[in-house]
Amino acid sequence: MRFRTSQLRLYLVTDRALSLGRDLEWVVGEAVKGGVSMVQLREKDMDTRGFIDLGSRLLRLLRPLGVPLIINDRVDVALAVDADGVHIGQSDMPYETARRLLGPDKIIGLSVENMDELRQAESLDVDYVAVSPVYSTATKTDTAAPFGLDGLREAVRLTRHPVVAIGGMNENTAPAVFAAGADGIAVVSAICSAPDPAAASAKLLSSL
Question: Pick the catalytic residue: 37, 111, 189, 201?
Answer without folding.
Answer: 111
